[in-house]
Design a protein that fits this description.
The structure is a homodimer of 463-residue chains. In chain A, 39% of the residues lie in helices and 13% in strands. With 463 residues, chain A is of the alpha+beta class. Chains A, B: Pfam families: AMP_N (PF05195), Peptidase_M24 (PF00557).
Chain lengths: 463, 463
């Protein structure tokens, strides 16, 4: 936890955005796996963590703008639960530790909310079913009303505030990214032909847990890197294949790191792998070079797309005018996702509040295949933290679909593409802070060039 | 997955328990951590797994008893999601793979349920908030009605059927227990003074993940074994302390193992630790020896309690007549929990259906402190799988409470107890099958005697 003053200051800054009304914050509950008391690890709501810092299930908070009073609600533990869980601070003690004077039991939260007219109550979009049930109870809404009546001013105020990372947050994220780099380094120094993907993922997870935190999102550890959100770890990995790892550390305070690396399952890359890896890395480095205040991230993305399209043109996969091709989304056959996203307490920061507000400042988002998956499309400001992760993927299902429908056929040499249909995917990913003058790559360095990656890979084969 | 016939046979056996009505099965959804798409690992509902075997989020099933028709509902993936997740079988193909002829989309599930009078619809107790919302939508009930109108006949039929494990289930559980033993062995051979609890827990987790499964419940890895459900892993472990590990493997099919072990952080136990360890182990072995069909597990528990009370009497912690003391619950100062619980697809098998029905066959459960935490109190039958895990704990908060209130003061020497108030806790735990003639301990053996544990510990200090 940060100091009491940090949370008081954050709440005061938020309070200034409102003249009237009541802000309601729902802390998260434990999440059950296969019966109520068998739970996943607890993850507190990030906005609750940001303004109240308390990492315990079953809490609620209210900021009453007019009275200036802040409240925390929760039920104290009984002696029975102390036997099972050890002694615990009271709700009053917890509230006081983050500078909140008023506290009460859960039923008092419901009484308090019901004491206001519903149109004065601001709340954020529910992303867990428990949030919907709680808001239905507190406000007397049905499920559809709960979803419809979220507060846009609350979303915008939280989004703008959390988007600018403070010095102490940057230090915490830098640590998250360093541990993330260690996780990737551990995989590079461990994976060998004949292992399963699960064995490599397990080693990566061990590093995160041993550090006292957890993973910031489900680990992608796969020889099928072309499947962007692939969580299957059942394959045995073989010489000649590429291994794509996308994994990040979450600090005990909840801040995320997020990196991707791609390395050969054997000791060295093949020539074809090297050629395509170099294109992806060129796009990656060019994107990072562009980062500074005032630049629209959409332009960073499109520049990465152009470099990828150009590189693939040199290899014969694509053809035609690069600017036209990218304007038509032809690069998205190989690069159907975005160049990066905001990162902070969430690995996709504030995705629960809506990309439209947080990543696009309310501006319209493209509906074009590829570009519609870009999560960040606004002007960068000092204090933003974001990922850079352009990639090149050969997705057989997508190749077939585009070929059958003739999509962007003036820009794609399908014969050549089909020769590489089982190539897989390549992505590097780093986390970057926007500084007043430019940018800074966060965390300790991880091998990224072909030479450095192959150097790390040697260590996996030492004994 | 088991064969198609296994699932067909299980459903047919269930169907025989009903003459009329409709059985509704809710598969689980993905569970969100900090925003909708950042999810915990998926855990399917165990009853859904048992009858339908499909391990994918967003499925629903119906068994219409009168027509004899079974249905599976879910939404097929779109081409967009195939790009992100790889190609996937259709709902129709999945249904067919487990012998279900009828399938449809999610909205058809709601239409189907609404086509029956609500009093013909049987459903099991909801344990996730998403279940409550779905049942509200499908049945037009409010939250309280959903909780009140669960089907006792459905609970009892599922409980009785799932309680008797088949040959193929026993094989799977035996494997789960073997991996569980490897997890414990890895910890014993790894932990050293100066490490954190988290480092040991991470090593244990790695073994589970590398095997391609996961953990069956949150790992307890602590020098504060007296706190029964302690998930804090932040302490640095020191020479002279006891380390208590309670952890289990979950196979990819969902079956659980669950073992506990207690070992010295240094190479050897102290004399005091040895004395108390021997008492706990004596109770453990005596409890296992009693296991056979026809024995009521409550008697096994009370026998373990008597051995613990007797052993502690020899050491001067307790006094008076053992039978009277145990009848009055005096042992519960040191042993406030149960000797074991049923285990299968859930580590506490079917805890979501209610212990009252599954573990007590509808018989009344004791309200006495200690005995009320016993999860199993019925006659054992061949095919039951259960844990044996008596323990001895010195819980400072509980000692103070009992001393202040004079609870069972005729049986407790509080002066002596207070000398050990920082001793910690000791527990061994194994998983046992009830056979027609007696019992069988499942899985590969794990060091349990003081000599064997100290032998394992030497390996942690080899280099």
């Amino acid at each position: 936890m940060f100091s009491k003053e940090t949370y008081i200051n954050r709440r005061n800054q938020l309070r200034k955005q409102f003249n009237t009304g009541v802000l309601v914050f729902l802390g998260n509950e434990e999440s059950s796996m296969n019966y109520e008391d068998n739970t996943y690890r607890f993850r507190q709501d990030s906005t609750f963590l940001y303004y109240f810092g308390l990492n315990r299930a079953g809490l609620y908070a209210i900021m009453d703008i007019e009275s200036g009073n802040d409240y925390i609600f929760g039920d104290d533990f009984t002696i029975d639960s102390i036997v099972w869980m050890g002694s615990q601070p009271t709700i009053k003690e917890m509230a006081s530790s983050v500078g909140v004077e008023h506290s009460g039991a859960v039923n008092e939260f419901y009484q308090k909310v019901k004491s206001y007219p519903t149109d004065k109550v601001h709340y954020l979009p529910p992303y867990r079913p428990e949030h919907i049930l709680k808001l239905m109870d507190a406000l007397g809404f049905n499920k559809e009303e709960v979803k419809k009546k979220v507060s846009i001013p609350f979303i915008v105020a939280v989004g703008e505030q959390r988007n600018i990372k403070s010095e102490e947050e940057i230090k915490e994220i830098d640590y998250a990214v360093s541990v993330t780099a260690w996780m990737h380094q551990a995989a590079m120094r461990f994976a060998r032909p004949g292992m399963t993907e699960a064995q490599v993922a397990a080693k990566v997870y061990e590093v995160a847990l041993a550090e006292g935190g957890d993973i910031s999102f489900p680990i992608i550890a796969t020889i099928n890197g072309q499947t962007l959100h692939n969580h299957y770890h059942g394959n045995t990995i073989k010489e000649g294949q590429l291994f794509l790892l996308d994994a990040g550390f979450e600090t005990p305070m909840g801040y995320a790191g997020d990196m991707s690396s791609t390395f050969p399952v054997g000791k060295t890359f093949t020539n074809a792998q090297k050629e395509i890896y170099e294109i992806a890395l060129r796009a990656h480095n060019a994107a990072i070079d562009m980062l500074k205040p005032g630049v629209n991230f959409r332009d960073v993305h499109l520049q990465a797309a152009r470099i990828i399209f150009d590189g693939l043109k040199d290899m014969g996969f694509t053809k035609g005018d690069t600017d036209d091709a990218v304007a038509n989304g032809a690069h998205a056959l190989f690069f159907p996702c975005g160049t990066g996203h905001l990162m902070g307490l969430d690995v996709h920061d504030m995705e629960n509040l809506g990309e439209q507000y947080v990543g696009y400042a309310g501006m319209p988002k493209s509906k074009q295949f590829g570009l519609k998956s870009l999560r960040l499309g606004r002007e960068l400001k000092p204090g933003y933290v974001l990922t850079i992760e352009p990639g090149i993927y050969f997705i057989p299902e997508l190749i077939d679909l585009w070929e059958q429908t003739g999509t962007n056929k003036e820009y794609i040499n399908f014969d050549k593409v089909n020769q590489y249909r089982n190539f897989g995917g390549i992505r590097n990913e780093e986390d970057v802070l926007i500084t007043p003058d430019g940018h800074k790559i966060l965390g300790e360095p991880l091998a990224k060039s072909i030479e450095d990656v192959e150097e790390e890979r040697k260590k996996a084969f030492l004994d």
